[in-house]
């Protein structure tokens, strides 16, 4: 009988929390604490115009540094934050920080666009466009300096509703970017229907350049399609000069990747902006004919 078993064993008879739920609750708590304690920060990774070596934009990437565990990669915690719903709070915070920082670049006289990742859950919030509008109104940043990065899958579910939202955001003057292009189960139809301003070619297609014939064909096809549609193209994850050269030869104009810089803290990124053209990226383009 239960009583004879003693207190400690009662839990055995209670409905058990699944290990998954428990760890999600712990993680959400940890993320909330990290944000409160200032252990979360937005870092910025430059996007570079290949021919001039100029920084034209920066992607805002969330960084969590735990005093004991060290750096926790967004690849590890964003998917869990999406499950728990906490990603809505995180994305809203990153957006505010990013808009504030980009307003600062503008005030410094070195305006570049800031490109912010938006998770599907955040994009689907009924008040998302209203909040976005308010963030811009309360900032010194004209909408043209902000871009939002969406994945293809966001546009698939409730396609009509999402298309409406995309149009509303474009109406504000905010740029819309398709992230990780080519990795989603997407139709290409949305590209001609929606006001997409930029496509980011997924790094999985860049990795094999310049040697892999398949990657070359895919990247070349994406670039010529984007050009025909009047959409800007950025190759992601460019690590070597040879990859950068291949992108340029395939008529690509922009890249983002360790070849120029990883994501760096805001102060460091400001410093690079004031230094003007970045040496590394200038090196990266030294093979190009000057025109
Ligand atoms: P993403 O949006 O596709 O971001 C690009 C990722 O590639 C970043 O990883 C970046 O650090 C990494 N990367 C950049 N250049 C190179 C390179 O040359 N080589 C290699 N191997 N990697 C490179 P990170 O920062 O770990 O972020 C991973 C993903 O987490 C992002 O992929 C994005 O989907 C998500 N994420 C990051 N910050 C946020 C955020 O604030 N909100 C949301 N919803 N998602 C975020
Ligand atoms: Mg991104
Ligand atoms: Mg990406
Ligand atoms: Mg990605």
Automatic annotation (TrEMBL):
Membrane-spanning residues: none
Highest taxon, organism lineage: Bacteria
Ranges in a coiled coil: none
All copies of domain EAL, residue ranges: 24-277
Protein name in the entry: EAL domain-containing protein
Organism: Comamonas suwonensis
Residue numbers of the full-length protein present here: 522 to 812 of 823
């Amino acid at each position: 009988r239960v009583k004879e078993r003693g207190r400690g064993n009662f839990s055995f008879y209670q409905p058990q929390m699944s290990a998954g739920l428990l760890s999600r609750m712990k993680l959400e708590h940890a993320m909330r604490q990290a944000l409160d304690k200032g252990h979360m920060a937005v870092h910025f990774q430059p996007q570079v115009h290949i021919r001039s070596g100029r920084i034209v934009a920066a992607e805002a990437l969330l960084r969590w540094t735990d005093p004991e565990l060290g750096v926790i990669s967004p690849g590890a915690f964003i998917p869990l934050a999406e499950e728990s719903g906490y990603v809505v709070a995180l994305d809203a915070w990153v957006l505010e920080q990013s808009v504030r920082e980009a307003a600062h670049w503008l005030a410094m006289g070195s305006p570049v666009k800031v490109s912010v990742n938006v998770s599907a859950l955040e994009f689907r919030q009924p008040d998302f466009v209203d909040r976005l509008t308010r963030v811009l109104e309360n900032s010194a940043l004209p909408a043209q300096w902000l871009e939002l990065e969406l994945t293809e899958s966001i546009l698939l579910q409730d396609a009509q509703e999402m298309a409406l939202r995309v149009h509303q955001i474009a109406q504000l003057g905010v740029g819309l970017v398709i992230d990780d292009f080519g990795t989603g189960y997407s139709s290409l139809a949305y590209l001609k229907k929606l006001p997409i301003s930029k496509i980011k070619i997924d790094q999985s297609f860049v990795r094999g350049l310049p040697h892999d014939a398949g990657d070359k064909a895919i990247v070349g096809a994406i670039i010529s399609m984007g050009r025909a549609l009047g959409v800007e193209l950025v190759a992601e994850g460019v690590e070597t000069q040879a990859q950068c050269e291949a992108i340029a030869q395939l008529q690509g104009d922009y890249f983002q990747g360790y070849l120029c810089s990883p994501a760096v803290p805001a102060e460091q990124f400001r410093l690079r902006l004031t230094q003007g053209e970045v040496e590394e990226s200038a090196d990266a383009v030294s093979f190009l004919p000057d025109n």
